[in-house]
Amino acid sequence: MDQHARAEQPDGTPTPQPLARRRFLAAAGLTAAGAAWAVSGLGAGVAGAATVSRSASRSASARGLAAAAATAGGYAVPLDSAPHTRTWMAWPDSTAIYGRKLSGMQANIALIANTIAKYEPVYLLANSASVAAAQKACTNPNVTVIGSIPVDDCWMRDSGPVFRTDGAGGLDAVGLNFNGWGNKQTHAKDALVAQRVAAYLGVNFTAAGLVSEGGAIEADGAGTLMATRSSIINSNRNPGRTQAQIEAAMCAAYGASKVIWFTGISGQDITDDHVDATSRFLAAGAGLVQTPNPADPSDIWSNDEQQQYNTLSTSTDAQGAAIAVTKLQSPDYNKIRQTSVDFVDAYANYYVCNGAVISAQFGDSTADANAKAVLQRLFPGRAVVQLNIDNLGNQGGGIHCVTQPQPAP
Asked: Is the pTM of this model over 0.90?
């Protein structure tokens, strides 16, 4: 998940949750349902829109994958665009979280699931009482609703397992010890989703040596990660731990050997600034960063975008190669459909599935068309499908936030 906007009670009154992208709401009254994961138990060891060449991507991955995977027992997290077996999602049904906005959230989840299901199977988790509603909304027969793994919310990128492959037909899963984005939201069920999905599939499961979320860490599949310090090197996730300790745990979990850190923004949204709203890897040695629209006034978020671009475009990957960065310009806030300052306009929060790139459009026709053209150049073998997911955007997230790929072994 990226940055939620404010939730409401069933009567329409706001719930006191810090779920805003562009302004911070106090977290008073929020407690985790169940004990928080014990950090003290952690192990201590642990430019330009150029087309990404598939052959270059494969060769670069081959150079780095063996070394990267060595720290994870031969397993490493592949690039999101690697072939998938399926996509995992979850069905929201909590009026305590969403109030009268729940139906809009459900409509967006169903739209995304039905769209992805045109290209690959979707497994959708739902609480047992909501299975029938989820099945009714998800009309594509390629969507399978699973009622045996309960959930608190729909942000599967953060609560779900991070899958790894070994390049020889093996698949396992890592859990990032989800704690409700630093104990900002109830998460007793979601804290168990990663290991329960792994058990459902019958694959080996390992708890990572840090607390984080999938949307907080981006992997190039060849040994390089990127993340914001604000989200991970944070006392609400990993108190008392140094950057070096956290970095070692990240690399061990992902089968990586290098982390590119962005400063990020702490305390202004529930995620403390997840990287997947702004910066993505396209391949080994290639990245994408959403950059500010010159028509919008500068603020902390546009400054963050520019800083991430400056950092990534001057960085090298795990093999020491310079990273070529494509800019993806944000829409003009004066031209999009939504008017809330909390709305998340993240084109970069797209999802790559088998045969397609599922992306958002926000109503700025010029910027929407540009985003589609950039993604089409970057992923020439895939259809680019743009969806109106404004309900997710108003709750601070996007398409990448609610999807978790299961790579083909």
From this structure: no
**Biggest alpha carbon–alpha carbon distance for the chain:** 57
Average pLDDT over residues 43-68: 40
pLDDT higher than threshold 80 for residue 285: yes
Q: Which positions ≥6 away from 322 have C-beta within 8 Å?
A: 285, 315, 316
Catalytic residues: 401
Residue 132 CA, chain-centre distance (Å), reads 27
Beta bridge partners of 153: none
How many Å apart are CA 390 and CA 170, to the nearest integer?
A: 38
Q: CA distances (Å), 300 to each of 6, 99, 229, 307, 341, in order?
A: 19, 29, 15, 10, 12
**Residue 53 backbone dihedrals phi, psi, to 5 degrees:** -75, 125
Side by side, the strands of the sheet bearing 143-146 are 143-146, 122-125, 84-90, 404-407
Tens digits of per-residue pLDDT, 144-171? 999 999 999 999 999 999 999 999 999 9
- Specify the 3-state DSSP secondary structure of 383: strand
User: Comparing 41 with 298, which gets the higher pLDDT?
Assistant: 298
Helices (H), 265-389: 300-313, 365-378
Domain locations in the chain as residue ranges: 46-407
Class of domain 46-407: alpha beta
